[in-house]
Write a structure and sequence with these properties.
With 77 residues, this protein is largely without helices or strands. The protein has two helices and four strands, in the order E-E-H-E-E-H. The protein starts with a strand and ends in a 16-residue tail after the last helix.
């Protein structure tokens, strides 16, 4: 059974990298498309800039981070 692939900017998921990266991401500060999160699935995700945490990437990236120098939202470690 394959794991889902998640976007590190918004938490959207797909069963394949191709499926994920073929659609655009409104929260990607570096480009237009979803970018795969390179870590595995976890029980808790933490923001690399401020340490805020959530049980999902989507939950973490749904709120803004005042310490993110290149964007508006939290970015998971």
């Amino acid at each position: 059974m394959s794991e889902k692939v998640y976007c590190k900017y918004c938490g959207s998921s797909s069963s394949s990298i191709r499926g994920l990266t073929s659609s655009s991401c409104s929260k990607n500060t570096e480009g237009k498309y979803h970018v795969p999160y390179e870590g595995g699935e976890k029980s808790k995700y933490e923001c690399k800039y401020c340490g805020s945490s959530s049980s999902s990437i989507r939950g973490l990236t749904s709120s803004s981070c005042s310490k993110n120098p290149s964007g508006k939202y939290h970015v998971p470690l």
